[in-house]
Design goal:
The chain has 224 residues and is of the alpha/beta class. The chain folds into 2 domains: 2-120, Response regulator (Rossmann fold); 128-220, Arc Repressor Mutant, subunit A. Helix content is 40%, strand content 21%. The chain has helices at residues 9-21, 32-39, 58-67, 85-93, 106-120, 154-165, 173-181, 190-202; strands spanning 2-5, 26-29, 46-50, 76-81, 98-102, 128-131, 134-137, 143-145, 148-150, 171-172, 210-213, 217-220. A hairpin with a 2-residue loop joins strand 8 (143-145) and strand 9 (148-150).
Length: 224
């Protein structure tokens, strides 16, 4: 669960929508009182905390979070106004794990959140991903299908890793295009279809693990 403390309704709703689309659960709050009320019953994985808030500001909230036993180790990413170097320094000194300067892109937010969670919660020490007869080594980037090494391009590798890290999850073409190619890419979603086709071919029998979800996109699933 990710808590988003942001008083702008439009930004907060977009953050929650993006987090849900990326596979996270998320809840939004507009002020300190709402946040600490929710913390009485639930401990989040991470808190996205805006500095400029009505009433109690984000710096003051961060101080409280770091003094409470239940939240002192909960990672916090601060959202700061562009150019406010002082706020960034103070936030990091008080124990913030990272910061984002507004306005920030939603995919950048997801990348920062994932990076912070990997850093503060290194519970998954797996060096490889394995689904059925397909294995992907996260350190060497080697892909092995039925004992045979498969040579992939970078985009094919990133697509495969996305699927293998999230088995059975359905990805839209737009999401894959933004995640693998980046938000600045000007191509069409047809690019995704072409790369999925070549990836399936290179994976041989394991290419059947990547299923087309009609009208939506793709997922990876191994049928019993």
């Amino acid at each position: 669960m990710i808590f988003c403390v942001e008083d702008d309704d439009g930004i907060r709703d977009l953050m929650i929508y993006t987090l849900n689309a990326a596979g996270f659960e998320a809840k939004g709050f507009t002020c300190s009182d709402d946040l600490f009320g929710a913390l009485q019953t639930e401990k989040p994985q991470l808190i996205m905390l805006d500095i400029m808030l009505p009433g109690e500001d984000g710096i003051s909230i961060l101080k409280k979070l770091r003094t409470l036993p239940a939240t002192k180790k909960v990672p916090v990413i601060m959202a700061t106004a562009k150019g406010t170097e002082y706020d960034k320094v103070i936030g990091l000194d008080l124990g913030a794990d990272d910061y984002l300067a507004k306005p920030f892109g939603m995919m950048e937010m997801i990348s920062r959140i994932k990076a912070v969670l990997r850093r503060v919660n290194p519970v998954d020490e797996a060096k490889s991903l394995k689904i059925g007869n397909l294995e992907l080594n996260l350190e060497t980037y080697a892909v092995v299908e039925n004992g045979k090494r498969v040579q992939l391009t970078l985009k094919e590798y990133e697509l495969l890793r996305t699927f293998m890290e999230n088995p059975e999850r359905v990805f839209t073409r737009d999401y894959l295009l933004e995640t693998v190619w980046g938000m600045d890419y000007v191509g069409e979603t047809r690019t995704v279809d072409v790369h999925i086709g070549t990836l399936r071919t290179k994976l041989g029998e394991c290419g059947n693990y990547i299923e087309t979800v009609r009208g939506i996109g793709y997922r990876m699933e191994v049928k019993a």
